Amino acid sequence: MRSPARHRRPHRPAAITEPPRFTVGRDHHGWWVVEDRLGRVGGLFANEDAAMHYALEESNRDRRAVRCQRRGASVEFRLAR
Question: 29, 33, 37, 68: least CB-packed within 10 angstroms?
Fold first, then answer.
C-alpha cells in the first residue's frame, strides 16, 4: 500500500529586495533634498515635510521606497545625465 501523497508548497526563492528608490535628507547647505537612486527626479525643499511629501507622491505612497538619511550625513542633489 502506498503512502498518501503529501502536498508540498513549491520552493520559492527569497524575494529580492531593492534598495529604496528615494533618500530624504539635508545637503551641506542645510536644504532638504530628495535624491532619486535612478537619477530621474528629485529636488531641494525648504522643509522636511515638503521633501517627504514629494518623495511619497513620486513613489505612489510606498513608504518602502523612501528612506531618511541618518543625522549628520549629507545627501547631495544630482540628476543623471
Answer: 29
pLDDT value at position 74? 85
Cα 77 from Cα 55, distance rounded (Å): 13
User: Using alpha carbons only, how large is the chain's radius of gyration in Å?
Assistant: 20
pLDDT tens-digit readout, 23-63 = 999 999 999 999 999 999 999 999 999 999 999 999 999 99
Cell of 54: 514629494
Q: Residues with Cβ < 8 Å from 33, sequence gap 6 or more?
A: 23, 24, 25, 26, 27, 42, 43, 44, 45, 51, 75, 76, 77
| DSSP per-residue codes, 36-49 | ETTSS-EEEESSHH
Residue 17 per-residue DSSP state: P
CA distance 56 to 65: 8
